[in-house]
Design goal:
- GO terms for molecular function: FAD binding; oxidoreductase activity.
- It contains 13 helices and twelve strands.
- The protein is α+β, with helices and mostly antiparallel strands.
- Among the domains are: 1-50, Uridine Diphospho-n-acetylenolpyruvylglucosamine Reductase, domain 2 (2-Layer Sandwich), CATH 3.30.43; 222-322, 2-Layer Sandwich (Enolase-like, domain 1).
- The strands form three sheets. The protein has a five-stranded antiparallel sheet with strand order 4-5-8-6-7.
- Strand 11 and strand 12 form a beta hairpin.
- Helix 5 runs antiparallel to helix 9 and helix 11 (270-276) runs antiparallel to helix 12 (283-290).
Length: 325
């Protein structure tokens, strides 16, 4: 670990000032500290924002607003989250270990960096770590890497389970920085690699995440999250599916489906959604809709299995959330 300075501002204004001077924000530290130990991240100054008043979970009308410093375990246990958005609670409970969930924050979860082994190995070529250095995963062991949203510069998957659920719920990320406040759709906030894989999110210098907001959805709303992995605990997804359905009168009126573990960002499955809306739940529908889940996939040498696994994962979760007749 390289030497660094540390400061803990007393209020948000002081935190923003420190961030504007180039400091890196830290709260739970469950990702950043690991990367510092591995010398992947080398911040000159850490700005500890854990004491800022950004940890509330509020329901206003039909909107759910989750403070960026709320702990993952607290949000997963929140009665309103569990009743209205089980997909969020399930995604959080399937993330990391209980000890990490007690420390990690919602904002930090969204900003966590990929678990690609080449990114974390400072001796390996990695465009995400150093643009222009190459991507060792393209010709290396790439079983866990992405098949959707990739580029010739990067094939690393986004690691967050929560982000997949929030993508399915059309969540907005609220930001505060030197230029004031702004909101960005989560699906626009997290960036595909393209030619700039080192730029992972739409976060301007000095900005910090203050909250994540889930907008109103038609009721009744059914939702759930399924994670498929090599082992049952403390493992990242090979694939996952967040399904959100509004069904009335025996017809699917609205559908939102997102996948994780298979793409460089949480991946909305719009082709699946189109096949669902206006149809009646049935075994045949789930199979037909899920068949479009891997549209556009670009498998690598070791991860071609993910295309079929994604389809099966989506089909299973559609059946679980939507039922059948």
């Amino acid at each position: 670990m390289y030497p660094f300075a540390y400061t803990k501002p007393a209020d948000t204004g002081a935190a923003l000032a420190a961030g504007a001077r180039g400091g890196r924000y830290i709260a739970g530290g469950t990702t950043l500290v690991d990367l510092m130990r591995e010398t992947v991240e080398r911040p000159g100054t850490l700005v500890d924002i854990s004491g800022l008043p950004l940890d509330d979970v509020r329901v206003t009308g039909d909107r759910l607003r989750i403070g960026a410093l709320a702990r993952m375990s607290d949000v997963a246990a929140h009665a309103r989250v569990r009743s209205a958005y089980p997909v969020v609670a399930q995604a959080l409970e399937l993330s990391a270990s209980a000890q990490l969930r007690n420390m990690a924050t919602i904002g930090g979860n969204l900003l966590q960096r990929t678990r690609c082994t080449y990114f974390r190995d400072v001796t390996a070529a990695c465009n995400k770590r150093q643009r222009g250095s190459g991507c060792a995963a393209l010709e290396g062991f790439n079983r866990s890497h992405a098949v959707l949203g990739t580029s010739d510069a990067c094939v690393a998957t986004h690691p967050s389970d929560l982000a997949v659920a929030l993508a399915a719920l059309d969540a907005t990320v609220h930001l505060l920085g030197p230029d004031g406040e702004r909101g960005v759709a989560l699906t626009a906030f997290l960036l595909r690699p393209g030619d700039t894989p080192d730029r992972e999110h739409d976060l301007r210098p000095g900005e910090l995440i203050t909250a994540v907001e889930i907008p109103p959805h038609p009721q009744p709303l059914r939702s759930g999250y399924l994670k498929v992995r090599d082992r049952q605990s403390y493992e990242f997804a090979l694939t996952s599916a967040a399904v959100v359905l509004h069904i009335t009168g025996g017809v699917i009126r609205a559908a939102r489906v997102a996948a994780g573990g298979v793409a460089t960002v949480p991946w909305r499955l719009t082709a699946v959604e189109r096949r669902l809306v206006g149809a009646r739940p049935s075994e045949r529908l789930w199979t037909e809709a899920a068949s479009a889940a891997a549209d556009g996939a670009r498998p690598l040498r070791h991860n071609a299995f993910k295309t079929e696994l994604l389809k099966r994962t989506v089909e299973r979760q559609l059946r679980t959330v939507g039922g059948s007749r």
